[in-house]
Amino acid sequence: MAGTSPAMTGKEDTMTDIRVPTLGESVTEATIGKWFKKPGDQVAVDEPLVELETDKVTIEVPAPAAGVLADVAAKDGDTVAVGALLGQIKDGAGAAPAPKTAAPPPEQKPAPLAPAKSAAPDTAPSVRRLSAEQFRDALTTLTGIGYSSPAAEITASESEQKRFALPIPVHWIWNDPHAAEKAKPGHLYFRKTIQLAARPEDATAVVVCDNSFTLFVNGHEIGSGNEFKTAFLFDLRPWLKPGDNTFAVHAVNHLPDNSPPKTPNAVAGTENPAGLLFYARLRHVEKGMQKTNDFASDSSWICSEQKQDKWEKPEFAAENWSQAVKLGDMGMLPWRVTKVYVTTKLAAAYPGKVRASLVAADPLLVALGRPNREQVVTTRPTVATTLQALEMTNGETLADIIKRGAESLMADPMAKGDLVGALYEKALGRRPSGPEQQEARIVVGQPVQEIGVEDLLWAVTMLPEFQLIY
After folding, report:
1. Using 50, 70 and 90 to split pLDDT, how confident is the model at 469?
2. What is the pLDDT of residues 250-289, one digit of tens each?
3. Cα–Cα distance between 470 and 468 in angstroms, integer?
C-alpha cells in the first residue's frame, strides 16, 4: 500500500508511504521479519524492502516508488496490522532511482506471494489449501508420476486418434495353437527383452489378457488386470532405461467359473479360450527427430508353464523356454479387439498425466478429503486431520509417488544439470533463494543421490507455498 504527502525538503519532493498490504482472508496482522534496506539507502521501484511473516505465509513488500528510504516506522520483530505504516520513501527531484551500476542488493527470498499494489482489501484473493485432486495433480507435474489411464470414458479427437494409430501389427499369443478355441486352465509365463538407445519420453503399454495377468518391467511389478474385455494401460517411463529392458507377463487362463486354477493339473472339460495381447508405444527424440521403438506380442516372445525363481528379473537365464505361438491378429474371434478401440484408449489416456478427477480414489485422495462423486465440491480444512497427517507423513501412496518421482528425475540427464532449480520452478513457480539453494544441495548430495532427491521432494511438497492457493 502506498500514499504520497508533501516533502519537507522542496516543492517537487514527495514522500511515498510504505504500508502493510492485504495478507489474505482472516489474516489481520504480521510480524516484521527483516528489513532489506536501512534509512538513507536508495531503492528502485518494486525492489523488495521488508519481509513480513504470518502463520500462513511469508511475503516481501516491494518498493512502491523509486527514491531514498527516508524513515522506518516499524522495526524487525514488531507486530503490524494490515494497512499500518511501515516507512516512507522520499522521491521526486531530491531522490534518484538506484543507478544501474549499483551493487546488487543482499540475497533475498523471491516472493511470488506478494499481492499487487492495486489490490484492495475487499478484492484480495483468499488463501485456501489445495483440494485432494489439485494436490495430486501438482505432484504429477512435479514428479512426472501420474495416473496411467482414466476410469472415465473419454472420446479422443480425430487428430489424436491419427497420432496414436498402431504402426505395427499386434497379435494374440499363447503356447497352444488352438488356444483361441480351447486351452487348459493354468498359468503361463512370458518374457521378451528389447534394446533402447535412450529412455523414451513417451512409453505406454496396452495389455489385454483372457483371463488375467500381471505385468513386470525390468523386475518391477507395475500393474495387473483381470477383465479380458478391457484393455489396460500402463505408464512405462519410470521403469525403462537405455540398453536392455526385460518385459515379463504372468498370464492366467481361469476355470469356466472365472476362478483362477489352484492346481497345475487341469481337469478334463474345463478348457476355454486363452490369449495374451500386448502393445508398447515407445518414442524418444534424437537430434530433433522422433524415433519409434514400438513392439507387440508375436512369436518372438518366449514362454513357459513352469514358474521359476526370479523368472521376471532381467538377469534370469530362460533355459528350456519355448517360442510363443501366434494365434491371429487382434480382431480375431472370440475377442474381436479393434484397432480403433486400442487407438482411442491410447489417445484418451495421456499416460502418466491423467488428472486425479478422472480416476477412482486411492488412499492419498481419500485421506485428503476426496468426496463421493455425488458431491461436486472438494475442500480441505486448514488444520490437518489425523488421517491426513498420517497419510502425508507416512502414507504408502504418497511415499511411492515420491520414490518413483526421484527415480524418474535421476534418470533424466537434463534435470540433473540444475535439479534444485528445476524442482523449485515446477513446484513453486520461482527459483530458490541463496540459502534455499545451499540447503537443497546439501540434502540431495554431491554428486546427487536418489535418496537425497526423495528427501527434497518430500520437503518441497510439504511447504505451505506448494499446498496453498492464493
Report:
1. low
2. 999 999 999 999 887 778 889 999 999 999 999 988 887 8
3. 7
Q: Among 86-95, 325-334, 423-432, name the one with the lowest average pLDDT.
A: 86-95
Residue ranges covered by each domain of the chain: 4-123, 133-146+356-469, 158-349
> 158-349 architecture in CATH?
Sandwich (2.60)
Beta bridge partners of 129: 468
Q: Tell me, which fold does domain 4-123 have in CATH?
A: OB fold (Dihydrolipoamide Acetyltransferase, E2P) (2.40.50)
Strand partners, 187: 252
Facing residues of 354 across strands? 147
Report the distance separating Cα 74 and Cα 370, nearest Å.
Answer: 44
Reply yes or no on whether the pLDDT at 86 is more than 60.
yes
C-alpha to C-alpha distance for 437 and 421, rounded to whole angstroms: 8
Peptide bond into 447 cis (omega under 30): yes
Helical packing angle, 450-461 and 434-444, nearest 10°: 140
Q: Which helix H or strand E contains 226, and what residues bound it?
A: none
Q: Which amino acid, one-letter code, is at 427?
A: A
Handedness of CA 161, 162, 163, 167 (dihedral sign): positive
User: DSSP alpha helices (H): ranges in 157-310?
Assistant: 158-163
Helix (H) or strand (E) holding 410: helix 396-410
Q: Which residues pair with 174 in a beta bridge?
A: 325
Q: In the predicted model, is pLDDT for residue 50 greater than 80?
A: yes
The larger pLDDT score, comparing residue 460 to residue 92, is at 460
Any idea which of 151-165, 246-260, 317-331 has the lowest mean pLDDT? 151-165
Euclidean distance between CA atoms 351 and 275, whole angstroms: 25
- Overall residue count recorded for the chain in this entry: 470
- Give the three cell numbers for residue 376: 461436486
Nearby residues of 376 by Cβ (< 8 Å), 6 or more positions away:
none
Question: Residue 177 carries which DSSP code?
Answer: T
The two domains 4-123 and 158-349 share their CATH topology (first three levels equal): no
Count of Cβ atoms closer than 10 Å to residue 97 Cβ:
16
324 within 8 A of 173, measured Cβ to Cβ: yes
The Cα–Cα gap between 278 and 297 comes to: 5
CA–CA dist 354, 452 (Å, integer)? 27
Look at residue 455 and tell me whether its pLDDT is greater than 80.
yes
Look at residue 265 and give its three-state secondary structure.
coil
The pair phi, psi for residue 201, each rounded to 5°, is -80, -25
